[in-house]
Amino acid sequence: MSIFASGIGSTATAYRDGKILVVPSGTSLPSICVKCGEPSGKSLIKTFRWHSPWLYLLILPGLLFYVIAALVVQKKARIDVPFCGSHRSWRTRMNMAGAVLLIGSLPTSFLLASLEVNGGVTALIAVAIAFFGLIVLAIVGSSFSPVYIDETCAKFKGAGEKFLSLLPRGAASPMVASKQ
User: Fold this and answer.
1) What residues are paired with 17 via a beta bridge?
2) Is the pLDDT of residue 3 over 50?
């Protein structure tokens, strides 16, 4: 299942449900940064994936069970997410920092080993660097993320209050209201 946010032929508009941004299928977001409400430049075209949180229980019997089930039942939404230059730059910098930390943990371990640092200390430092890289990437990934996706709409957390205040509350059109 995919939602393509082209907006062509759509009478529905994005709206807010409390602090949740609701994007009906086929709807485009306004050209305003979703984080701060300032005019945006270029939008980030992103495919979001979501599955029911209950699926995480499959990690208990084995990670492989969870991964296979998540790949099979996930819902997808492709959304053009507007960010201002400042928030786009923050995302880029944080993604680069997380990737450098994650990837850099391997050469760090080789460097420490060549300097004849204790193997346990080397492993601990390399794992810590990789862990911090994963944390940075998780923070960036969760700053604007889906809480629900189906065939009719996608719902997101992390939109700024200034952006949300520009949107109507509740169902924005009869077409959307009849599908929920």
Assistant:
1) 20
2) no
